[in-house]
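Lecture 7 notes: from sequence to structure.

We start with a single chain of 430 residues. Read the sequence below before looking at the structure.
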Amino acid sequence: MEDKNQESNIGDTCNLNGNCSPPTKNISIDLNHAKNIDDISTPSELKFDEDFEFEDPDVTAKRKEMEKCLENPDIVNIEKWQSFAKSKGGLIADEYRRRIWPLLVGVTRDEMTEPPSLDELSTHVEYNQVVLDVNRSLKRFPPGIPYEQRVALQDQLTVLILRVIIKYPHLKYYQGYHDVAITLLLVCGDKASFPLLCRLSYGPTAPLAPFMQTTMQPTQHLLNYMLPVLRRADDKLADCLDKAGVGTMFALPWYLTWFGHSLNRYSDVVRLYDYFLCAPPLFPVYVTAALVLHRAPAVYACDVDMAMMHCLLSRLPDDLPFEDILVTAKKLYDENDPTDLEAEVDALERREEEQRRLDEERLRQRRVERAGRNRAANGVLARLRRVLPRSPLARGAALAAAAALLAVYAYYRPDLFTRRRADNPDFEGF
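Now the structure, written as tokens:
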């Protein structure tokens, strides 16, 4: 079983490189289930496409070069592997990804140790919750997989997640983490996927570290960089999204799972992972911006309504040209360094905070006015009771009629009650 590191819980401060290094204070292990996103509980069903009959000549040439490099990988520098991963076609096939993904993040053979058994981890406080989330990921497995193999993969996935959160108890598991973990497990196997997932989850530039904090604030802050990138690239499109009030929530599952949750084609998912594994931590946000730019015609054709716009953007089609989208995202990143966007993001978040304050104030004022109308109506009813007949039946009928009339009058003239109350704080009726 993995030894627990004595790193402690950390706050909600992460820099643009994902540096979420913990302070020294120790706390107990727990998972932040308050951060779960409803949409992530229903993953898309992956399509494990067969190889194409015809391959692009450039990709074929790269395949041959990769095979030559893999004959003696120790003499190949990291820049070469990164070039393979980022260029057209990515790493082409899982047989190459299995060996190159660990190299992209610096995993060594010595770290690829045998995992503990599931029984050894089953007493962990979050075991049951992890199992529930893993069971939701069945659609992420290859179709037609034999029952025994599926159960083995589920157990391996549970062990993989528990090993990481035991090793780094200050990190908070989030729903969607299993989408990343299953992608690594399917490609690299249980030995290599553990140190690989550790690299992605903990460290000065770990891209998943902001997602594993006490609250979602660091994640939301980083996702907000998408909006000024869009604004600089297409002011008209940014205005359209702003008028709809759609915000960034539609892209949250994309970012949390590196699109592993939201895409239907397995080949698209692993192609993006090729690039993300050797890109800056914030690069997936630029891919979200490039994807929205690509879908601009559909956005313009959609009603300027928050619910409809969110529905349109959150559902990704199967025919997205990710090679082109990655090229656009690279251009956006080169032209819009994250440090140059900080002032715009801060201004955006101040406006959002001010809007929240105004909305809360309007809600409070409506409650005060509603309470005032209720007090005024009660005062009128109290006066009516003093002049109504003493007979219970006649009194009840008169009260019911008066209450109905008063309700109708108050509906059409609510200002009468609030104005009189404002002029006279002791006002209780007519």
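Residues 338-387 form the longest helix (50 residues). Keep this in mind for problem set 3.
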